[in-house]
Design brief:
alpha+beta, Nucleoside Triphosphate Pyrophosphohydrolase, 2 domains, five-stranded mixed sheet, two-stranded antiparallel sheet, elongated
Amino acid sequence: MKFANSLIQWYLENKRDLPWRNTTNPYPIWLSEIMLQQTRVAQGLPYFLRFTEAFPTVFDLAKADEEQVLKLWQGLGYYSRARNLHKTAQQIAFELDGNFPSSYKELLKLKGIGEYTAAAIASFAYNENVPVVDGNVFRVLSRYFDVETDIASAGAKKEFTLLASELLPKGKANLFNQAIMEFGALQCVPKNPDCTSCVLNDSCLALQKKKVAQLPVKLKKTKVTPKFFNYLVFLDEDGNTLINKRTEKGIWHNLYQFPLLETATALDDDAILSLIKEQNFIANEIDTVVLYNTENIIHKLSHQHLTIKFWKVTVKGKINGGIDCKSAAEFPFPIVIFNFISKYWF
């Protein structure tokens, strides 16, 4: 009980003033939880504010066009979250008359809502006695109780959820879950936590055993695949270009891009020109091919490291289906392409 009380007292004195904490409305709570998955609060907060301004209710989000949702999400990454967010909003608005389910088990039935998000909504909005277990909670519990279970292992989630359940003070799920997550985010941070100022330093087993830096244990490493992306920025005599929608499954699904040549290695001008001629991107005769970015752009994703080049490909005549640069910039792009557009076009 001391553990829970100390955490809650610390939270009440140190918590950040965040808009989704000043309400029990499940809609903004749900939005914030989806946005903050694998995303820092400082990065996610401006997106949350833009979303709630554009879509003040779940009905507004449900009625929006997917491209508008993706455009607002641009730069936040993990775009499947945005697509699922939109579909879930439609499910809640059109099938449930705008009413969020009021229990953990019913929330789990919604598309795109897993155990963590369902527990967060159930406890924050309805104070249901269910624990929330995220990376911060793994870290706090593994250090305080000296749990050496590999958090990437199959049974880790169940073990830590059970431990969190035992610690959860009944009737205070909202406070406790917020407290332990905030404690992991601000105090019990991954690297070099300030244990001297920690309210739990007199009873933390990891501190007593000098194991703070070794916990939590995470043995499984993500395999990272290197890829080379060559974006072809076609420009005709009117300054129009060509973009297309990335329809294949995987990263950046349903976002827009310039025609892409994905290669196993980096290519020079002559090799790119030969590949372009082999493809069927446009019917126009190619005039010149030069690099926009003389230095490679490295874009790191969770499972892929992309080496990116943008090639300026001028062509003769007018491109069939071409679009002017200003209009093209209004479409939702992966942030690496949007940054290129901002730098070289505007």
